[in-house]
Amino acid sequence: MAAVTDYGLRKVVWKSKFTPIMILDPFTTKLLSSCCKMSDLMAEKITIVEDLFKSREPVPEMKAIYFMSPTAKCVESFIADFKTNPKYKAAYVYFTDYCPDDLFNNMKLYCSKYIRVCKEINMNFMPLEAQVFSCDNPGAFKSIYSPKSQDKQKTLEELADQLVTLCATLDEYPGVRYKNNMENTKIFAELVDKKLARHYELDDSGTKKGKTQAQLLILERGFDPVSPLLHELTYQAMAYDLIDIQNDTYKYKSKDGLEKQAILNEDDMLWVKLRHKHIAEVSEQIPKMVKEISASKKQPDEKITIRNLAQMMKKMPSIRKQLTEKTAHLQLAEDCMQCFSNNVEKLCKAEQDLAVGSDVDGLKVKDPMRTLLPVLLHPYSTQDKIRAVLLYIFSLGGTTDENLSKLIQHVKIEDEREFILNWKELGVPIITPSFFSRKSSRRDRSQDETYNLSRWTPVIKDVMEDAVENKLDAKDWPHQSECPAAWNGSGAVSARQKSKTTQDERRSGSRLIIFVLGGICFSEMRSAYEVNQAVKSCEVIIGSSHILTPTSLLNDIKALRKEQCLMLLSNHGRLSPPSHVSNQET
């Protein structure tokens, strides 16, 4: 059990004591993988883990634990294991969430004599990090925002059910608030609040649970279109944006040509320590750590490279494990810096100026097109240009039909203009005039110490700080249900005031839970940790339907709809470049 992270969401989930055989579906496989290792299962006497949907050899003398989602497909597979020739002696069934009566009745009809336990354990979410969770449903984006969606309500219901299981796992009955003037937040807040009330009315304890010292804020992706598109220079966000990392696995080649991989999760303590740091700090700290190891072994002081590390490991097997961990991060940091040097550095200045609305010296950007133009003229990738064009449009609160047509032609995405036009499905104005302004007052951070190319602060950090300081405007953030009057962030200290509160002390105070429909990005995840570090006695937890990267978000946006996009610009005549760009340059 020692291997499981000793704090945060992952520890809360890893508390149920599970027999020798465990049967999992794909979702519960990912859930368990996110908070424990096979060695942890073996410590609980579980020696065999199998896939519910795959063919399995019967072991009639053994009992089996079924940890599965309450879906028709899972229940049908379970019934098939016992209906004719029972595969196991007995079954201990644990559902991630409430099991519908019809499915439960089917199980009883065919398998009642084999079922020893049947429980719903309220764990229908992924505890990705100490303060981050996901519903693991990237398809929710299309279901919620596509104009042709047939299952929007069903998706919102499922996400609400999952969010209730998070609250139940944390033993919280929070007051619910939502961002006003957004299409789905009020509907979703009502769903969550009703389901929370129902859950606690049906609680096994027999007593009705009152509201706890927690607040749940509900937003959706359109509230901040800027943060997910910027090139971030903190380690985690930068790596997932620029490097091909699949399923949290970074693959790389060692200097001897061998394929290697590193899993970037909470079990990698170096990753946890470095992931929110600026890449400049990461590139400086990893070689220092390696030098400390080599100095302790009386190795010559020389420049740290991947090749040198490989030689050191051959000479000193005793420090191989320490160096292997750092080798992966040294390589990943080098890969990130290579991308930065090649293209990202120049892009970042333009992106930051457009996002913040002022330059490094604090001077207002009066003509955003002058900022965008060098990006359009440089041979950057099409996706990088799309990101810059979107930031330009967001900075203006929308643009004209004519200017948009010119921009689309210049980026050469005439057949893929939905990358830009489909943002309106999220409530983000693309064509002016819009009926409301996207510009909202932001916290003054002019005195904050920042890197020149990292001046933007995600909007969600303002929201978190306002919430814990009890400064959220009631008109912008209506109450779906009130939380206890005493809730004000447990002291309502400034979110920038440093605190030495420990994790355990914080957990005894209040919780702020943020849920974003439509995905969250890594800079928003980082914001939860930053506010957590600064605020006394308030634990900040953030989650969403899924985790975004700039690439995945743009692909999701593009997929929302195509037919109408083509019609929208069909009457604009021949496309021409922006007014600042000559035909020759085009």
From TrEMBL:
Domain of life: Eukaryota
InterPro entries tied to this protein: Sec-1-like_dom1, Sec-1-like_dom3a, Sec1-like, Sec1-like_dom2, Sec1-like_sf
Gene Ontology biological process terms, A to Z: protein transport; vesicle-mediated transport
Pfam families, sorted: Sec1 (PF00995)
Ranges where the record places region Disordered: 482-504
Endpoints of the signal sequence: none
Sorted UniProt keywords: Protein transport, Transport
Family note: Belongs to the STXBP/unc-18/SEC1 family.
Alphabetized PANTHER family for the sequence: VESICLE PROTEIN SORTING-ASSOCIATED
Protein name, entry field: Syntaxin binding protein 3
Gene of this entry: stxbp3
